[in-house]
Design a protein that fits this description.
505 residues, alpha/beta, 21 strands, binds zinc ion
């Protein structure tokens, strides 16, 4: 019997409709752009979705066909040009691959292109045109995917992350691969039941260790134990995408469409019932700093500058928290990583051990705070390359495009050459900074950093500074989202849903 040929591909971006930083092809090339065999070097042994695909397929009697992997750090919408280049490369690699019996595709689910609201749906449509309606496709999706009904039309097999911080990307890659192989080898038939909710909860309180998303994931796992149910994904959505398909949803993959539908409806009702728990009130910068100062602990206190978290599309260069921390000049304080290639260049020109005048941050989004003028000492310089040590994207190579450790008064600051969340302590350690040794850490981060930092830090305080990733959704001028939608509008979903059900019959 001839071997099955399984294609693997990855196309990842989370796009913020209100960010001024458009995502160009360069951002994909900086983060990860691998064609064909290059994919093995980049992802073998990593705890990523593609790492999961590879580990399963290598043990099977199948032929792996590596196609294309393109990923960029979350940012503003993807330019039409960048998307077209990647889509064409993807389709070209599928054309050149010849016959494929199955396709594993790691997607994000919240990409937006200048002229496309739902590019992942568009891409799947194009792929279906090429490979036909029969060849099985399985995808992995972020918990923050704004999943649309059309995506389900192309394949029932979508596997959302069940953890936030997303430390199960690898496991979902494994699940997708196993499901696809079962379909191919055993002829298993899957059904998808999809429920979209009229809500777009902010992600600040969407962690799966506690709170409403913990409950949802526990319920999802319970449902998966029931007969006829294969997989349950709960998607919180990504509220910074100004698109008609924004928001939360539930997807149930089953062997029994009736049971699948009932489970999806039940999960949607539960999701709706916990929605208010996603809302959090956060302290402002000064209030957060005073709170941090009042805490006696031998572990560092973290002030997370969530509104400028690069993994939520922040520019990584807003200055309000930095400015206040510099004013207070607290000993044993570390701030980073601040995106500022110009200042890194100025440090490079002066060399280590020397003083330099810098205008820090505030260059991409001055509306969220102007640059801060400082005299700094250049302590260390690096190329900015390290490998993640923590559980999030473990072992993946990260290239910051340069880094500088500077000292201003009592404060250590890490400057980095492209926006990147402080999700792994190696970001600091690779240049000789030990976050564990500090009293206060000001981090450009939100939730993912907890996976690696929680074991070494004490209290974590989210501060409400100005920024594009603010959890106050009322600050954004939405144009394309469906109305009404919670939490912007006060609606009664159950009533609405029952009414819609009546119309259907
Ligand atoms: Zn996510």
């Amino acid at each position: 019997m001839r071997k099955h040929r399984i294609g693997i591909a990855f196309f990842y971006h989370e796009s913020h409709s209100f960010s001024p930083m458009k995502t160009e092809i360069e951002q994909f090339r900086n983060e990860g752009y691998y064609i064909g065999e290059e994919i093995y070097d980049a992802y073998s042994g990593t705890k990523t979705e593609v790492g999961g695909f590879l580990d399963v397929l290598i043990q099977e009697d199948v032929e792996i066909v590596p196609l294309l992997c393109a990923a960029a750090v979350p940012s503003g919408v993807v330019s039409t040009e960048a998307y077209s280049i990647i889509e064409e490369q993807m389709l070209q690699s599928i054309r050149e691959a010849g016959r494929l019996d199955g396709l594993l595709l790691a997607l994000h689910g919240a990409m937006v292109v200048e002229d496309l609201f739902d590019p992942e749906e568009h891409l799947l449509g194009k792929i279906r045109e090429l490979i036909g309606p029969i060849v099985p496709i399985a995808t992995t999706l972020d918990m923050h995917a704004n999943l649309s009904e059309k995506m389900i039309d192309y394949t029932p097999l979508h596997f959302g992350f069940k953890t936030y911080p997303h430390v199960d990307m690898y496991e979902q890659g494994v699940h997708a691969s196993i499901a696809l192989l079962k379909q191919l080898k055993e002829g298993v038939h899957y059904y998808a039941s999809f429920e979209k909710l009229p809500m777009m909860p902010p992600s600040i309180n969407m962690r799966t260790a506690e709170g409403p998303m913990y409950k949802m994931i526990e319920w999802a796992k319970q449902a998966e134990e029931e007969e006829g149910i294969y997989n349950v994904s709960v998607f919180g959505g990504f509220p910074y995408s100004d698109i008609p398909m924004v928001g939360a949803s539930v997807l149930v993959v089953s062997f029994d469409p009736q049971k699948g539908k009932e489970t999806a409806q039940k999960m949607a009702s539960l999701f709706w019932s916990v929605r208010e728990e996603f809302i959090m009130d956060l302290p402002g910068v000064k209030e957060g700093l005073n709170l941090a100062m009042s805490i006696e602990d031998d572990k560092p206190v973290v002030l997370a500058d969530i509104s400028d978290n690069p993994l939520s599309c922040g520019s990584g260069d807003t200055t309000e928290l930095l400015r206040e921390m510099l004013k207070m000049n607290i000993p044993d304080t570390l701030f980073g990583g601040l995106y500022d290639p110009e200042s890194i260049e100025a440090c490079r020109k002066k060399g280590t051990g020397n003083k330099v005048l810098l205008s820090l941050g505030g260059k991409v989004s001055p509306e969220f705070g102007e640059s801060v003028q400082v005299e700094a000492t250049v302590v260390a310089l690096s190329d900015g390359v390290f490998h993640n040590s923590g559980p999030f994207n473990q072992h993946l190579r990260v290239d910051l495009k340069g880094a500088a450790h500077i000292r201003v008064g009592n404060m250590d600051i890490l400057l980095i050459g492209r926006p990147m969340s402080a999700n792994d302590p190696e970001m600091f350690r690779h240049i000789g900074l030990e976050p564990q040794a500090k009293r206060i850490l000001g981090l450009k981060a939100k939730n993912h950093f907890r996976a690696a930092f929680e074991p070494i830090v004490g209290r974590i305080i989210y501060v409400d500074a100005p920024g594009v990733a603010s959890n106050r959704l009322t600050t954004f001028m939405y144009r394309y989202i469906p109305k009404p939608i919670w939490p912007l509008d006060d609606i009664e979903y159950e009533v609405e849903r029952r009414r819609t059900e009546k119309w259907k019959h």
